[in-house]
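Customer escalation, tier 2.

The customer says the design service returned an amino acid string that "doesn't look like it belongs to this structure." They asked us to rerun it and document both sides in this ticket. The original structure tokens are below, unchanged.
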């Protein structure tokens, strides 16, 4: 390996990148396609499947022309040719050839399935459904989001659908000149919004970069031409310098007897456009416009070469990236460094193995390319992809949830998957990618929904941290969970940054609120029924015997007592209607006490029918206030103690026998009543002062206050005894407290 000829063979000239040829792309024949796929598909049966698919497509598309004027069959041939360049399997090639037949001809999915099998039929069917999307009459933004979601839903079913659709879109973009300018722009915008992000995440750089450049040509033609001109000028000026750099690197590697080949690449026009116009770089500030790529045999060789280059050339600080030790989520692996050459020019150097280079260019298509002689299982491949590309699992999961707002779905997809650029490790070394600003709570939900719901804290790089800690690339994060966790609260929506985590939290809170609302309706229905039946001299136990019967359930179309109480709370039916339906007679409910007014009775805000000179006081355990649903509890020798209906003490054994209906007086005058509450908030400086200021603003007196920190969640709980006139006022106080920064919940306390 030390002759000049051998050395020359290892140094490839800078590839003449066809950025966007003016004369159009070459048109391939089926014979050329066959020659290509024959290089890796050897099985006669598989070869025949592709041949039969071509013959059927040619027959069905016979006589049809594209808008550019050439026979339509050239489009499916070109799609299949792109797929064959990625070494796709026979089913994928057949689907590429047939992808437009069901949409544009009389061929049916059943016909495809009968001749080519279930896999080919499934791919063609998914592509056909994507193609059949119609424009809606909503706003343009809503339409785009909904139709883009439908495309992703179709592609999430099987990765081969994505590959064929990308090939289809690539050839359509190559022949876009035949369409009107408006259509060119619409398709180019859709390509950048939908197809290039998924190509990027799948690591199919060859398709991604060409789609981006083609899209930019039609969306920003002036900027495209400007960058192309700058590129051509720089490449011409630097060619001698580039060749000298490559020769010197080759000499050093031959001397060290390290196997290698060297090539150079030019940065894509769209990548330069993003840096110049979206990140405000000058063209001369972009160091990686020209790059030297060194391909070797092993990872060890990669690091050896890096050491040699850094020992010879001055590296640019902060520009070294080790994607071998920490691959990108699309499986991309390479070493990147930027160096100053001997003549002062700056170049990026990429170092990788042959396998890494194939995956860098073709991504998932290279890793799962067709392998002759191996039994192919689509479901196993899909599972394997979801395991290796963990973001793809999230993509499939998100796309499977078809309900909800399309704009929310697209926002979640863009933020959580396409723009995720922070890479965090689990303790076992698995990489989780998150968007910038994501917290340990987002990380928890990325692991699993149940992990997120039960999270109480986290450990980052061995240090205990709260759930609102922002993560950065390279962090090792472990989530601490608790079986007794209360689950998400409203404050978590401020902590979470990913759309997927927010969606899970909202779903949890909606269910929690629904359950609470359901319990509240049941409680109100029970209270209303008990009050009406009590007015007829019927206690709650006896009432339930009357109500818990098939006769009542059938009459009011309910299945159980909870549903009946919910219906009563909604006044469908009213308790009086049920009493009439059951033909119940009023019983004597007079309490045997003296019937005259007293100072005790006058001072109490509560009365009992026929109570007379009976002592009535408000319970200290549940602190009822006017407006609460209440019930009286007859004590031995101490009169009646008024409790809230939902007070746990009223559910104790034997309590029901002592309960009696009681009522708030209509005219209570100006009075205030003590009530115990708890305020839940994220810990911060000045929280207590803000809470007290809001209470003072509402003219609410406070007699007791105590605050403590929950160590597991790093949240504050503030216990207060406040004085309000009624339950409506308390609701207003709660609403005002929830406007305090960090406060996410307020609750009454039952001791």
């Amino acid at each position: 390996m030390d002759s000049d000829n051998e050395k020359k063979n290892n140094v490839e000239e800078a590839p003449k990148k066809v950025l966007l040829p003016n004369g159009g792309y070459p048109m391939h024949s089926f014979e050329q396609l066959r020659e290509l796929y024959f290089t890796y598909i050897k099985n006669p049966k598989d070869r025949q499947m592709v041949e039969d698919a071509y013959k059927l497509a040619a027959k069905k598309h016979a006589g049809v022309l594209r808008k550019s004027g050439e026979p339509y069959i050239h489009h499916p041939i070109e799609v299949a040719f792109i797929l064959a360049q990625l070494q796709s399997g026979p089913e994928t090639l057949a689907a590429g050839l047939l992808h437009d037949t069901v949409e544009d001809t009389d061929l049916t999915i059943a016909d495809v399935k009968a001749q080519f099998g279930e896999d080919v039929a499934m791919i063609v069917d998914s592509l056909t459904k994507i193609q059949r999307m119609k424009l809606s009459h909503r706003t343009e933004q809503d339409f785009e989001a909904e139709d883009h979601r439908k495309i992703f839903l179709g592609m999430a079913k099987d990765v081969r659908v994505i590959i064929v659709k990308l090939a289809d879109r690539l050839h359509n973009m190559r022949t876009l000149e035949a369409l009107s300018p408006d259509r060119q722009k619409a398709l180019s915008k859709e390509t950048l919004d939908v197809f290039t992000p998924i190509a990027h995440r799948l690591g199919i750089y060859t398709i991604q970069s060409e789609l981006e450049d083609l899209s930019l040509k039609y969306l920003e033609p002036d900027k495209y031409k400007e960058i192309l001109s700058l590129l051509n000028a720089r490449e011409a000026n630097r060619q001698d310098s580039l060749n000298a750099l490559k020769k010197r690197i080759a000499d050093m590697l031959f001397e060290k007897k390290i196997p290698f080949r060297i090539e150079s690449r030019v940065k894509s026009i769209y990548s330069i456009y993003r840096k110049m116009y979206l990140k405000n770089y000058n063209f001369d500030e972009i160091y990686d416009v020209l790059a030297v790529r060194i391909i070797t045999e092993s990872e060890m060789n990669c690091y050896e070469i890096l050491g040699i280059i850094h020992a010879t050339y001055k590296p640019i600080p902060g520009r070294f990236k080790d994607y071998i030790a920490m691959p990108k989520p699309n499986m991309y692996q390479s070493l990147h460094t930027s160096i100053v050459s001997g003549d002062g020019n700056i170049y990026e150097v990429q170092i990788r193995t042959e396998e890494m280079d194939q995956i860098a260019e073709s991504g998932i298509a290279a890793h799962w390319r067709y392998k002759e002689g191996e039994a192919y299982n689509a479901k196993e491949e899909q599972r394997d992809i979801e395991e290796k590309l963990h973001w793809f699992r999230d993509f499939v999961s998100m796309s499977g949830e078809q309900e909800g707002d399309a704009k929310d779905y697209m926002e979640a997809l863009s933020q959580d998957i396409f723009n995720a650029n922070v890479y965090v490790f689990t303790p076992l070394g698995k990489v989780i990618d998150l968007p910038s600003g994501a917290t340990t709570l987002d990380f928890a939900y990325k692991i699993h929904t149940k992990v997120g719901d039960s999270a109480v804290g986290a450990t980052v790089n061995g240090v205990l941290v709260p759930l609102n800690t922002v993560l950065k690339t390279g962090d090792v994060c472990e989530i601490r969970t608790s079986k007794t966790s209360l689950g998400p609260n409203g404050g978590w929506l401020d902590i979470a940054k990913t759309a997927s985590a927010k969606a899970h939290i909202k779903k949890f809170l909606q269910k929690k609120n629904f359950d609470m609302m359901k319990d509240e309706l049941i409680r109100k229905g029970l209270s209303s029924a008990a009050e009406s039946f009590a007015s007829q001299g019927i206690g709650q136990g006896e009432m339930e015997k009357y109500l818990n019967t098939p006769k009542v359930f059938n009459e009011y179309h309910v299945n159980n007592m909870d549903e009946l109480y919910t219906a009563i709370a909604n006044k469908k039916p009213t308790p009086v209607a049920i009493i009439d339906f059951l033909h119940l007679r009023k019983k004597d409910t007079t309490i045997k006490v003296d019937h005259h007014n007293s100072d005790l009775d006058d001072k109490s805000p509560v009365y009992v029918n026929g109570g007379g000179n009976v002592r009535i006081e408000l319970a200290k355990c549940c602190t009822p206030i006017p407006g609460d649903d209440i019930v009286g509890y007859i004590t031995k020798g101490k009169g009646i103690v008024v409790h809230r209906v939902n007070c746990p003490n009223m559910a104790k054994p034997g309590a029901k026998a002592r309960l009696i209906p009681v009522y708030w007086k209509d005219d209570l005058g100006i009075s205030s009543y003590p009530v115990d509450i708890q305020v839940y908030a994220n810990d911060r400086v000045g929280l207590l002062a803000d809470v007290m200021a809001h209470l003072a603003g509402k003219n609410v007196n406070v007699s007791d206050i105590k605050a403590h920190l929950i160590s597991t969640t790093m949240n504050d709980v503030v216990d207060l005894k406040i004085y309000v006139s009624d339950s409506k006022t308390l609701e207003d106080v709660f609403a005002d407290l929830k406007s305090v920064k960090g406060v996410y919940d307020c609750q009454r306390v039952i001791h």
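Tier 2 assessment: The sequence is consistent with the input. The CA atoms of residues 217 and 225 lie 8 Å apart. The chain has 31 helices and 21 strands. Sent an explanation to the customer and offered a walkthrough call.
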